[in-house]
Amino acid sequence: MRVGVPKEIKVQEHRVGLTPMAVREYAAAGHEVLVQTGAGAGIGADDPAYVAAGARILATAAEVFAAADMIVKVKEPQQVEWRMLREGQILFTYLHLAPDPEQARGLLASGCTAVAYETVTDERGGLPLLAPMSEVAGRLAIEAAAFSLRKPAGGKGLLLGGVPGVQPARVVVVGGGVVGTHAARMAVGLGAEVTILDRSLPRLRQLDELFQGRVRTRFSSAATVEEEVLVADVVVGAVLIPGASAPKVVTRAMLKRMLPRSVLVDVSIDQGGCFETSHATTHDAPTYEVDGIIHYCVANMPGAVPATSSHALNHATLPFGLALANHGEQALVQDVHLRHGLNIHRGKVTCAPVAQALDLPEVSAEAALGM
Q: Which residues are catalytic?
């Protein structure tokens, strides 16, 4: 199979779909890898590194899309990209379609087979291709919060971890999954006072054991979320319903009652955001203010550390990508976990949460694949 790797074009996105390490694995498996010139510049991988790994360099994205049977990316295709997709072509990348009807329409019109990293599952019920970027984003969320609390950044002038004799910042993490766990780990490490909210009692027990009493755990309800948010210096939104739009757990009404110049970091923004006042921002202009509360809502947070992120992502995606390259659509038939990643197939929505969020008809992945 011909596997294409275009250069990412989303604002301040420096990750790459395949690293030279991954290219070498694809080439060893007998596949031809076509890489757009400069695609790996953001991670310090130049064109000669890709050639040495077995890739062929093409000058433009149009050439890559035209020649490839499968496109491997990081971020969802932008309008100019989905217009280059064609029927029968496989797209393997993050999609986050639930809050993005325009992209969904573009992919449906293209006739491509779109497999989303964020809904591929594993035998434990986890999301193995979302996890590495969730780990990165969770850790970055605390770095972003610490910076946003500084006075020159518009914050209240508070040091996240405090100093001896001075109260540290109160950090509330809404959601105890991968993002929330890594955000809490970073916040605890910096000396903050941390509370994690989650609706799963087994997960709260796990977190209590993991942190050995260094964080407070509370069951997440409308009442407890409000109670914690109103006394927090930092709130990290880490809520995930796989494939679906994130629920709004912090309302506009709460903002007027929060501590002035507090910081909201919405890591759920790719799925529409879990704060009512969230809208996507970029690394160029990462924050904005509503009712005296600082919002950080960058939609591609891991893009700020592309070298770490690209390698971590490729380690996770490699076996699934190779399966698609080796077997084409048949890989989706053979592997139920990869099949869970199928969001759109030849003009049909095959992911129930996406169909529900966008009010579109859904065809099961099995039916769409003729199983």
A: 96, 270
Sign (positive or negative) of CA dihedral 123, 128, 130, 135: positive
The arrangement of strands across the sheet holding 113-116 comes to 55-58, 32-36, 2-5, 70-72, 90-93, 113-116, 342-345, 348-349
For 337-355, how does the pLDDT look when each residue is reduced to its tens digit (9 = 90+)?
Answer: 999 999 999 999 999 999 9
Rounded Cα distance, 299 and 296, in Å: 9
CB 15 within 8 A of CB 72: no
* Strand intervals (E) in the chain: 2-5, 32-36, 55-58, 70-72, 90-93, 113-116, 170-174, 193-198, 216-219, 234-237, 263-266, 287-290, 293-296, 342-345, 348-349
Distance of CA 275 to the CA centre of its chain: 17
Going along the chain from its start, the domains and CATH numbers come out as: 2-120+306-368 (3.40.50.720), 131-304 (3.40.50.720)
Contact 103, 82 (CB under 8 A): yes
141: helix, strand or coil: helix
Please report the pLDDT score of residue 1 as a whole number: 97
List beta partners, residue 36.
58
Give the C-alpha separation, 363 to 354, whole Å.
11
Cα pseudo-dihedral 281, 282, 284, 290, rounded to 10:
10
Q: What is the pLDDT of residue 276?
A: 96
Q: Which residues pair with 290 in a beta bridge?
A: 293
Structure-token pair, residue 306: 């592309």
pLDDT tens digits, residue range 19-54?
A: 999 999 999 999 999 999 999 999 999 999 999 999
**Sign of the CA dihedral 38, 40, 43, 49?**
negative
**Which spans in 155-275 are helix H?**
178-189, 201-211, 222-229, 252-255
246 pLDDT higher than 90:
no
Q: Tell me, rounded to whole angstroms, the distance of Cα 292 from its chain centroid.
A: 27
Give this prediction's pTM. 0.90
Place of tokens 């991670």: 43
Evaluate whether 303 touches 13 at the Cβ level (below 8 Å). Answer: yes
